TrEMBL record:
<dbReference type="Pfam" id="PF01628">
    <property type="entry name" value="HrcA"/>
</dbReference>
<dbReference type="InterPro" id="IPR029016">
    <property type="entry name" value="GAF-like_dom_sf"/>
</dbReference>
<comment type="function">
    <text>Negative regulator of class I heat shock genes (grpE-dnaK-dnaJ and groELS operons). Prevents heat-shock induction of these operons.</text>
</comment>
<dbReference type="GO" id="GO:0045892">
    <property type="term" value="P:negative regulation of DNA-templated transcription"/>
</dbReference>
<keyword id="KW-0804">Transcription</keyword>
<dbReference type="InterPro" id="IPR002571">
    <property type="entry name" value="HrcA"/>
</dbReference>
<keyword id="KW-0805">Transcription regulation</keyword>
<feature type="domain" description="Heat-inducible transcription repressor HrcA C-terminal">
    <location>
        <begin position="115"/>
        <end position="336"/>
    </location>
</feature>
<dbReference type="InterPro" id="IPR036390">
    <property type="entry name" value="WH_DNA-bd_sf"/>
</dbReference>
<keyword id="KW-0346">Stress response</keyword>
<keyword id="KW-0678">Repressor</keyword>
<dbReference type="InterPro" id="IPR023120">
    <property type="entry name" value="WHTH_transcript_rep_HrcA_IDD"/>
</dbReference>
<dbReference type="GO" id="GO:0003677">
    <property type="term" value="F:DNA binding"/>
</dbReference>
<comment type="similarity">
    <text>Belongs to the HrcA family.</text>
</comment>
<dbReference type="InterPro" id="IPR036388">
    <property type="entry name" value="WH-like_DNA-bd_sf"/>
</dbReference>
<protein>
    <recommendedName>
        <fullName>Heat-inducible transcription repressor HrcA</fullName>
    </recommendedName>
</protein>
<dbReference type="InterPro" id="IPR021153">
    <property type="entry name" value="HrcA_C"/>
</dbReference>
Length: 354
């Protein structure tokens, strides 16, 4: 895979302008952009042949593609990604769009779910795309938890609350996790989750991690002081207790039991650290995100894009998200400010009501 940021930095002004104009032309009407079209209003006097050569160079770099032999060019998924990350200019929402969103929020209804329904309808109407609205996170006691692997980089956590509410959240699992390790994590959590909120479960696991660490320290202290063992990477996630001459020590005065106890504690510590990381990731969120084409694993719609932004409560905690799903040739410069503005407005309204 080409290093996209480096490609953009190494392109000369002509290449950047050709690339930008091809992408903007494609996003505007969905049609391939030809060299003759670009020469008409290019910033410098250049021939169609020069533009064609530049397009061929951009195609070689994987940024443009030609759907037909004699046609113009369209951006590839990689090209769209580079345009969005490096060349897209984002301002404030258009006044008309803002007024339509504001009108949706002006209702005095106290029902948050009703508000979010109206937000979804307004986003669909303003953007002509499908809307995505994730409701505020629930903090009631949890009855059951399940992790579902969607891809190596994406997973779903299903939370069943004691009051009957069911919630699905998407997250990026810790590296190297498998469907079976997710099942083990869910089984462990379900054994201690009854009557606790997600935050309380997280706190309980962190407490257990501290307790295990203290047990290991007290058991290992005498061994380390006597020179029989030494810590490697102490305090790190991957710390190890290296035993010197272990094969002899295992037969002396029951010390083998200490080593076995330490080994079991280490295994338990690692498992709890993994589970703590699972819980942290289910509560994470970030700013406006744009998923283009096959990056959009959430819906397995390779020809679509998702623009999504979280909204926060009065404590600045992420409690939900709003977004728009549409074709990859979305008008990103218009859609991103709308989604961002809507998310901020929803967060403010919910914070005011609470």
């Amino acid at each position: 895979m080409n290093d996209v940021p480096n490609i953009l930095g190494e392109m000369n002004e002509r290449s950047r302008e050709v690339f930008r104009r091809v992408v903007e032309g494609y996003l505007a009407d969905g049609a391939p952009v030809g060299s003759r079209t670009l020469t008409r209003d290019f910033s410098e006097k250049v021939s169609a042949a020069t533009i064609r050569n530049t397009m061929q160079d951009l195609e070689y770099l994987g940024l443009l593609d030609s759907p037909h032999i004699s046609a113009g060019r369209i951006p590839t998924q990689m090209g769209l990604r580079m345009f969005v990350d490096g060349l897209l200019e984002i301002g404030d929402p258009d006044e008309t769009d803002r007024e339509k969103i504001d009108a949706t929020m002006s209702s005095n209804a106290e029902d948050v779910s009703g508000l979010l329904d109206r937000v979804g309808s307004a986003l669909s109407g303003v953007t002509q795309g499908a809307s995505l609205v994730m409701t505020p996170k629930h903090e009631a006691p949890i009855k059951h938890i399940e992790f579902v692997s969607l891809s190596p980089e994406r997973a779903l956590v299903v939370l069943v609350f004691a009051d009957g509410h069911v919630e699905n959240r998407l997250f990026s699992p810790p590296a190297g996790q498998t469907p079976s390790s997710m099942r083990e994590a869910a089984n462990f959590l379900n054994a201690l989750i009854e009557g606790k909120t997600l935050s309380e479960v997280h706190g309980a696991i962190k407490k257990e991690i501290r307790n295990r660490r203290q047990e290991i320290d007290s058991l290992a202290q005498a061994l380390v002081e006597s020179g029989m063992a030494v810590w490697e990477g102490e305090g790190d996630q991957n710390e190890r207790l290296i035993v010197r001459g272990r094969s002899n020590l295992l037969t002396e005065d029951g010390e083998g039991e200490d080593f076995e106890r330490i080994r079991l504690l280490f295994d338990d510590l690692e498992r709890k650290r993994d589970i703590a990381e699972f819980l942290e990731r289910t509560e994470e969120g970030d700013g406006v995100r744009i998923f283009i084409g096959s990056e959009n694993k959430l819906f397995s719609l390779s020809g679509s894009s998702l623009v999504v932004s979280p909204y926060m409560n009065a404590d600045r905690k992420i409690i939900g998200a709003v977004g728009v799903i549409g074709p990859t040739r979305l008008n990103y410069g218009r859609i991103v400010p709308i989604v961002n503005y809507t998310a901020q407005l929803v967060g403010k309204l919910i914070a005011d009501r609470s």
